[in-house]
Amino acid sequence: MVTYNVHDLVFFPDVTDLTYAGSCPDWVATAVMRAPVGVIRRGQAPAGMLPIGIRGSNKSQRFGAYLPVTAVTDHLTSQEIRHFGRSNRQDKMLPIWQALDQINPYLDTHQYDWGLSGSAAYELVTGIPTVNQNSDLDFIAFNQEQLTPPKAQHLLDWLNSFGPHADVQIMRGQAGFSLEDYCYHHGQGVLVKSLQGPYLSADPWNE
């Protein structure tokens, strides 16, 4: 049985496969025609459906929909995407790619079960120019051992030393929290995003 995690990418045949509430913006059909791919989003879905997000040509164009599992033609985990080759990088000299090439060997050597999401993942998979000079590196950390706040800060400092801002989401099941938020707010309550909605936790590692 296939397991779908938040931030995985799924491919499907056509915009007509999508189910949604209300009306569908015109740009969605154009985006799907260009790249029939959606990102698994966090949320409840009807039986047999996946909650997905469609990405448009700019940050204001994001659309939530549902996709029947039976319509999925291909599925890529965020871990698989992190290991994608360089062929789809449209501007190979951008800082985000330079940083990723230096970080990936360390993650692999130390067997970090991390994936890649966000604009970098989308461009690697589709070949559509998405990242720019100021793009963040968005990592998804699965099975991450618990870190003390000083160790977490040390890891973030190292990741950010390569230039682009690194955002690390720590996954606990289908829930997740920001490692940066944990460093700054560990004594006050860390924002955890879950299927039931966001909430503050004093111990996000053990949710």
Overview of the molecule:
This protein is α+β, with helices and mostly antiparallel strands and 207 residues long. Helices cover 28% and strands 26% of the residues. It has helices at 26-34, 78-82, 95-109, 118-126, 149-160, 179-185, and strands at 9-11, 37-40, 49-55, 62-68, 74-76, 114-117, 137-141, 166-172, 175-178, 190-194, 197-201. Strands 6-7-8-9-10-11 form a 6-stranded mixed beta sheet. The chain has a 5-stranded antiparallel beta sheet with strand order 4-3-2-1-5. Helix 5 packs across helix 6. The two termini are 25 Å apart. The mean pLDDT is 94.
Question: Summed up, what is this model?
Answer:
This protein has helices at residues 26-34, 78-82, 95-109, 118-126, 149-160, 179-185; strands at residues 9-11, 37-40, 49-55, 62-68, 74-76, 114-117, 137-141, 166-172, 175-178, 190-194, 197-201.
What topology emerges from the helices and strands here?
Blueprint lengths: L8 E3 L14 H9 L2 E4 L8 E7 L6 E7 L5 E3 L1 H5 L12 H15 L4 E4 H9 L10 E5 L7 H12 L5 E7 L2 E4 H7 L4 E5 L2 E5 L6
Parallel strand pairs: 7-8
Antiparallel strand pairs: 1-2, 1-5, 2-3, 3-4, 6-7, 8-9, 9-10, 10-11
Helix pairs in contact: 5-6
